[in-house]
Amino acid sequence: MYQYEHITTFDSQEQGGVYGANAGTGSSNTNNTRQQHATIKRRKSIESDSSLELRGPMEVDGSVKSGGGVAFSGNFVVRDRIEAYGDIDIVGDLRCSRIKAYGNVKVDGSALCGDKVKIFGKLKINGTCEVQGDLEVWGAITINGYLKCRTLTAYASITTVGDQSWYQTEQGETVHGAKLIQRTSYEG
Questions:
Q1: What is the mean pLDDT of residues 73-84?
Q2: Percentage of the chain lying above the pLDDT 90 cut
């Protein structure tokens, strides 16, 4: 951890574990609401002992660490890593350097990671996910869209859903489970 890094710490969700465009505002003014949605929030780092629910657009100069899960809703840029001891849910667009998740990771939208991603649970992609480094997943991988990474290590099965879903590795893959193609649409 950097010495100059300011960390925003939350012990519980009541103390501010929810960031949102409308959080803390009781105004029903339409112009005020539109102006808040256009404003990008900036944080140094975010750290919590419990689960986090983050609403974008937001830029985090440091890392996001949670003792529980993390839910990203909207557009996010995290300059350092994301580490969660629970599930990570991404709804929207996420750019980060690294991800380490001890739970499942679900991408509904797009995710771009500049370095290594390690997931001890399942990975579900509904959209696109690009990892410019190594991807290691201990649970099953379900792709309803597109996955690209440098190397892929999967300790369970990989399922592509539909004819338009596929994945690409630049330097090879190691899959210890089955490679499956599901031709019908996927709900989930």
A1: 95
A2: 70
